[in-house]
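We modelled the chain as a single entity of 442 amino acids. Its sequence is:
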Amino acid sequence: TTTTTTTIINSAGWRCFFLYDASKVRGEGDPTRAGICCFHPRQAPRDEQELLCGQIAGVARCALEISGSPPGLVRLRKLKFALEAEGSYLWVLGCTADLSDLSCRRLLERLVGLFRFYNGPPSRAYAERSQEDLDQEWELYLSHLQQSSSDLHRAFNSLWALDKSKVDPLLLLKAALILQSCQRSRHVLAGCILYRGLVVSTQLPPELTARVLLQKGAEDGSVSCSCASALVSSAAFMEDVVRKVCPPPSLKAVRAAVQGGGPGRPPCPPGPFLWQAPGGSFPSRTGGGASRKPFSRSLPLPHSQYHSSLASLNGLEVHLAETLPKGPLPSARSTYNFAHYDAIQNILTTNALQALSPEDQLFLQATGLIHATFERLPTTSELTLRNASTAVYGCRNAVQESYFQQRGSTPSNSGVPNPRDSIVSLPGKARLKLLKHGVNLL
């Protein structure tokens, strides 16, 4: 076990993942490899893949027979594993021990959600599609999770969004008006506008918006989107997905269009504009990708509205490129770190950068621990963690969480409760500094 774990950590960084089908391994003579649908990192030795998959699957089966349900988390010496069972299939994500249990489980939920959203249940996907095709899909999903989230985003499972304090409010209004205009078309339920992987405006629930953020790169024949609008139609999704973007009174009106259709597979737009139409057709002004039925024949949408939407998106892209600052303001990060999480919109605002100092790493670790504690103790509203070099203050209410670290100063402590202890002033400093970012902790 120690050898296997070490190899995987070295080759995969902070996690590994596999999908195992127990129905393929029933007798003593059945090889474990027959049940491995996918394993990442793919370069891990085959015998070590089989050893790890056999161990985890055996633990899950044992726990299922004893307690009636498979475990949600399994710990080994150097890795922890989040598990989710679906029929004979077992999804397993391995994370390093320093990642919180909550973050580990949420990462697996995101990964499984991506697969189900684009492919449906694994039993059908592996029956209808080739192993090579699905292996490529997994590479895309894992790469998406690795490249599109920082440690803070992993902890909160939040969306990347534009910093509204740095964008002209009229641009955000324009984005919302574009979506409202498209929503007047028949079958269109909701949509979102993205800019360079950031959410500009969305009418979709956070879990659906996060999946639309998945974009293929130019290396696989498609073109990475700069400014894209994804619109979901009533005929493209199962009823449970429609229910999330459609209020109950109007659900009945679209049920007829949804029944009988499998889960939608919204393709990545080869151009800057995607309209998901019945049957998966969409227009492209770049002409990339396979030829598809013209959009005007799929939905009764006037050409004038279609072209005006394209023009509006192109204009929005130009304005965003000119308006957004090239990088974070250095003065906002010189003396403190902060993170603010909106639980309603599932959006995280922070000035912590990807290039992190040891002090910044302590901020990330403390934030993750405080967040996990808040999840475990719902009645707790304030918490401060400290060690010999730094202190981090966290507070929350029903809709938001905020975290603050004063950089460059070592907290002083006399060893007994003391009003002059520097940690006492931390909440006041947090309230004052975060007001500059539009966050009111009062």
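As a brief sanity check on the tokenised model: Residues 1-13, 218-225, 249-291, 293-299 have pLDDT under 50 and may be disordered. Residues 183 and 358 are 48 Å apart (CA to CA).
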